[in-house]
Amino acid sequence: MSKTSYLAKNTLLIAISRVSTQMVMFFMLPLYTTTLTPGEYGTVDLIITYGALFAPLIMLNVQQGIFRHLIDARTDSQMQRKVITNALEIVIGTSLLAALVFLAVSYFVDIPLIASIVFYFFSFIVGDLVVQIARGLGKTKEFAITGITQGLLTAVLSLVFMLPLEMGMNGMLLGMAIGMLLPAIILAAYIGVYRSIKVSARDSTIKKELLAFSLPLMPNTISWWVFNASDRTIISLVLGVAANGIYAVTNKFANIANSFSSIFYMSWSESAVLAINDADRDKFFSSVANMMLKTFSTLGILIMCATPVIFPLMVNESFSEALLYLPVLILGTVFNTVVSFYSAIYVAKKLTKQVANTSIIAALINLVVIFALIWFIGIWAAAISTAVAYGAMAVYRHYDMKKYMEITYEHGLLLKLGLLFTVVTLLYYMNNAGATILSLVIAVGAGYWLNRKEMGKIKQVVLGRITK
Question: What is the rounded CA–CA span in Å between residue 154 and residue 146?
Fold first, then answer.
């Protein structure tokens, strides 16, 4: 199987998992926005955002080290046992320490929803560890099935907890936590993680290797928090949790594009590792870069143009202000996809310090911009600061990557995409039916024209499969 075909296959499997999960969660918006007030929804959104920050910090980012090292050990069962055993030992130790600290803090500070928060964090950690082990071992199909199951189970449990049981915020958190945890435990049993846990496999050298890879990624995780949690924290403190609820709904629509970006990153990070030392590496990486930029730019634009049609059907009218900030967040999502593309290459080359350095710079830019603007333009400051910071990091990483390889983009591609985004954004803010329909027509036509070669290849593959 060629490198491009392998990337396409993995991307498709991950997409089936992630898209189904994201769509389930997206279609839960009517439940969340009618059952919870903007303030309550903003509070739960903060908890979920902090979970995505603190869980990797508690694990010292070892889950990423597991994935990277297991790829190299796919044909070495002894090394697999060493990686899994020593990684779990590190994570169990740090998790117990974090639990003690959390309990000590809760003794002096009244933390609402404390039991649900602890359980949600625990589920997040277990789920993340198991899926990274599965990906590292090449169990992409099993990983995809688990993702679908998590999404469906979360939806069912949320409905039960929030409607007949009327558990409100607790119900939303518990539905998500149990929905993540149970399928992850089943996946761990199915792929035989327990067989790889051996006392005899404990090895201080492996622990040091895992930590040497993972610890430099800590600043990157903290920077990710600055991009996500700090924006929402600052909005909540300065403008109130109701404003954060509005911003959270905007992010739900922007995250449709972001979920596809994460799908690409998960698949690309594996392909980048496997191809990093190939003779035609630069050519292959450049072709992926061009495909990535065209695909995700047009996808983001399509989502932006379609949202005014979908929004009234999905979201309570008390959240209607959320539509204002979407174009800026979509732009930030496109920049984030470019950032992720280069991040996978850094990880493939085990240059995790470079990931940290570039992330710190972008995080500082994000903080400076939001603090400078939030007092004057409110929620706009969070959206603008995110787009500016991701854009700066994308440009920086592109030129920094030239030290290691040459990645080239098609002549005039950035100009075409910039013009397309400007036109559809102007139509978006006209806020009438005619402009919305015209923007959709332009987005669909331009998307097909820019991606016609890739779509032709997909058509050939699909027809070939059908014929076969």
Answer: 12
Buried b (16+ CB within 10 A) or exposed e, 135-173: bbbebbebbbbbbbbbbebbbebbbebbeeeebbbbbbb
For residue range 9-47, list pLDDT tens digits in order.
Answer: 555 666 565 666 666 666 666 666 667 676 776 677 777
Cα 326 versus chain centre, distance: 17
359 contacts 393 by C-beta, under 8 angstroms: yes
- pLDDT tens digits along 445-461: 888 888 777 655 555 54
CA 125, 274, 458 angle in degrees (round to 5)?
A: 95
DSSP assignment letter at 230: I
Residue span of the structural domain in which 422 resides: 3-467
> What span, in angstroms and rounded, lies between the C-alpha atoms of 306 and 201?
53
Is residue 233 a contact partner of residue 46, using CB atoms and an 8 Å limit? yes
d(CA 121, CA 112): 15
Q: What total number of domains does the chain contain?
A: 1
pTM of the model: 0.66
